[in-house]
Amino acid sequence: MVERSEDQVMARFDGEAVVVVGAGRGIGAAVASAFAADGAAVVLVDHRSEVTTRAAELAGGAVAVVGDGSDADVMERAVGSAAGIGRLSTLVYAAAHQRPAPVLSLTPQEWDRAHDVGVKGAWLAAGRFAAAVRRQGGGPASIVMVASVHAYQAYPRHAAYGAAKAALVGLTRSLAAELGPLGIRCNAVAPGFIAVERNRDAWALPEQAARHAARNPLRRLGRPEDVARVVGFLASGDAAHVNGVCLLVDGGELAIRPGGSDQDHDALAEDS
User: Fold this and answer.
1) Which of 90, 100, 234, 245 gives a 20 to 30 Å CA spacing to 126?
2) What keywords is this UniProt entry annotated with (predicted)?
């Protein structure tokens, strides 16, 4: 075996193109950063214009696509951009929409928005990604959906978000079954309470952070990087025979808290 110097060691995703939807902040931004650090050419998609700044900060010629993740044309543009800068290998869908509201006050518009961004957008993105992978001759390739513990546990005022995340887990399994023959694996992660911008009010003060941390077996808040590392594993060759699963990334939150009634248990993925 030929030995390589440190600067010759290939990163895990060298030569690969990765699309991250919902990359403007929080979990999606951490995922994009992790892939770029591991050698991938990353296309960051978000409706926030700040995604262009994030892309400029990343190594490897990252590209920003500003637009709604539930828009078919936006996803066509994102996947096309990725196919032009490397071997299309990974799609991560981290976009979500959540506005806490009692179920009796929830409007049809809010319900539709949660499902358009959280489920329809994921379906559109996966379809366009899979079609592009097929055009390049098939996999190996991977799709990773960012779900939530809300898919498994009900929380008051989160009916639309929770139902959308449960549907996303179901979509993940269906995609795994149908896209597997193309060499495309599809899995999901379900974060617990993650300290992201969206729920800053629930953890910014030391006493609030301590209260949330105390409820977790690991006695700390989850970080976006915790989720990003699991996403990287699922997208890598280390998970080559992992397909159709949803991995909890919650520090054991659901293991010890079968009931959830906290009013301040807010969004676990970023609003879109």
Assistant:
1) 100
2) Oxidoreductase
